[in-house]
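Project standup — Tuesday

K.O.: blocked on the structure for the chain from last sprint. Re-posting the sequence here as requested.
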Amino acid sequence: MKTQWAIFRVALRQRRHQLLVLGSRLGLFALVLFVFKQLWSVLLPGGAVSEHVWYLAITEWVTLSQPRVHLDIENDVRGGELTYYLTRPVSYLSFRLAEALAELLIGLAATGVFGLLWAYFLAGGFPADPRGLLWALPLGLVAALLALLFHVVIGLSAFWLLDCSPVYWVWQKAMFVLGGLMLPLTLYPGWLRTLAQATPFAALLSGPGSLAFGLNLASVGTTALHLALWLAVAVLLVAVVYRRGVTRIELHGG
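H.V.: unblocked you, prediction finished:
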């Protein structure tokens, strides 16, 4: 753990200086919220606009804070650097996870502060029941960690596909639709809402985001339970896929 902590601290210092990437994400965050705020101002009654702005701010916060760890893993596999990492005393998986976690925390902090101020400005204040935002914070943090682990799994698919872009594309579109990135799942048809809730995407985005509409302790408990279950699944997937991928490389001589 001391080695992983050292890697984490080094990565944290390095990622602090990637201001260009961070700035582009904040710009996208600002643009998306502004555009949808204008749209909702036409389609929704006045009071509902504020809550929908905060909903989108939460879902975008979780989404835009994600590092591109899947591309780092893909590049290591395709370029052959992975075989060199495997000979080192530090686990390659631990190295990439510590590095990605550092970048995730910086992204969460930056987009979180910016999103809070920008959403407050666009919405004209906090939601009618701001208590939900206090619960959305820890749930959003767990959701971001869960998304990070699934991105690691996507990157590890490069052991077999070399190019993980198709897997990431499917994941991204599923997040958009089944996660309720732009619209709450309560607006979906019943059959699609049921399908979404059977996937990790609803807990990742709609769960924390729905708290913008008010504090519902039953919803908090359900979202927390689903996140915990999917977190266990993600950890297992990462371990199994990585082990099988490394075994595949060793059998084929790198």
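K.O.: great, moving the ticket to review. The two ends are 27 Å apart (CA to CA). The chain has a mean pLDDT of 86.
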